[in-house]
Amino acid sequence: TEDQTRTCLIYYDHKDVHRFPVPQSKIDMSKKYTEYCPVEFTADKILSKSNKLPKDPHIDDPEYKTIRFNDMDFKFDCDRRSYYGPYELMDYKDNTNVKVPKNPVGRTGIIGRGRLFRWGPNHAADPIVTRWKRDINGKIIKHPDTNRQILEFVCIQRRNTGEWAIPGGMRDPGEKINKTLLREFKEEALNINNNENGIEFNKFERIVVNTKDLNKILDRFFKGGTEIYQGYMDDPRNTDNAWMETLACNFHDETGNIVGQFKLEGGDDAKDARWMELSRDLKLFASHVDLLREVAVLRRAHW
Ligand code: RP5
Ligand code: MG
Ligand code: MG
Questions:
Q1: Are 163 and 50 members of one domain?
Q2: How far is the CA of 293 from the centre of ligand 1 (A)?
Q3: What is the ipTM, given to two decimal places?
Q4: Looking at the structure, do residues 279 and 130 belong to the same domain, yes or no?
Q5: pLDDT in tens, the chain (303 residues)
Q6: I need a labelling partner for 101 at 20 to 30 A (CA). Which of 72, 177, 210, 221 fits?
Q7: In terms of Cα–Cα distance, which of 228, 127, 125 is closest to 170?
Q8: What is the pTM of this model?
Q9: If you take atom 10 of ligand 1, which residue's CA is the nearest one?
Q10: Number of domains in the chain
Q11: Residue with the nearest Cα to atom 1 of ligand 1?
């Protein structure tokens, strides 16, 4: 509704960081909001120079001025373009010498990067792996209300907030988006951390394959994706100057004999993984439910 405000906390381990409330009608930055006094927040982990995470320089670092916004940035090995087209730059507080990216969707109640590594768009990928719900004899089940087949998707539980989500993740520096989709699925839903030597193959319920075969199956399966969405993600970490954008792809196992047979196991930043029924009543992290609705429409499934 009009006067609804977004007052949520930024994220789990920063329970003290409250966003400045932004009424629905004031989200658009072109609308005047004179009382607006966003909280300045960039997590220590993002500011620290001690670890090797691929972070951007902060505004007080001379390197900051070398960032190439709205472009491929080879120096920092990342794509700073938004799916929305060019975003504007704005003053950081009253400092007219420093320009920071302006969130194209609007005000969030926080300036700085919050917990995000990059200024501007932070690119992620979301693999939505689906199969049809079946009875114990393998027959596809239809929903009594809609008489439509029911989809199940691979869902993970995020370690940090405990929320259930699509097993998505951030694009590594220089990484192709297709690689991110497959890598994150393997890490978070199969607990496979790389494809060097150590993949165990007792993680499967009904099929046993060796490492090479497993990778072949996954590589082939992940070639047949359908793009569902690319754009902004309403992520709890977003700020006025740093935000999540994602590319979501549906990988559907029609027969249920491929990935549909895999035993899921949460790994990396996921503490659990399971097949979950698609329905409008799902409560998931960020706006992941909206992505699933698109998949249900695409597959003419129950929703
Ligand atoms: C969401 O955060 C994206 O849709 C993706 O699922 C996820 C990526 O962040 P991490 O899972 O790496 O925290 O905005
Ligand atoms: Mg991950
Ligand atoms: Mg993730």
A1: no
A2: 18
A3: 0.98
A4: yes
A5: 444 555 555 565 566 788 899 999 999 999 999 999 999 999 998 998 876 778 999 999 999 999 999 999 999 999 999 999 999 999 998 777 899 999 999 999 999 999 999 999 999 999 999 999 999 999 999 999 999 999 999 999 999 889 999 999 999 888 899 999 999 999 999 888 754 544 444 444 444 456 667 888 999 999 999 999 999 999 999 999 999 999 999 999 999 999 888 889 998 899 999 999 999 999 999 999 999 999 999 999 999
A6: 177
A7: 125
A8: 0.91
A9: 169
A10: 2
A11: 235
CA-proximal residue: ligand 1, atom 8 (nearest) = 169
Same domain, 181 and 284: yes
Cα separation, 215 vs 221, in Å, equals: 10
Boundaries of domain holding 74: 5-122
Contact between 124 and 289 under an 8 Å Cβ cutoff? The reply is no
Straight-line distance from the first to the last Cα atom of the chain, in angstroms, rounded to the nearest whole number? 24
- Kindly give the number of the ligand 1 atom that is closest to the alpha carbon of 188: 11
In degrees and rounded to multiples of 5, residue 69 shows phi and psi of -70, 155
Determine, yes or no, domain membership for 303. no
CA of 90 to the centre of ligand 1 (A): 26
Q: Ligand 1: which residues within 6 Å by Cβ?
A: 124, 126, 165-166, 168-170, 233, 235, 244, 246, 269, 286
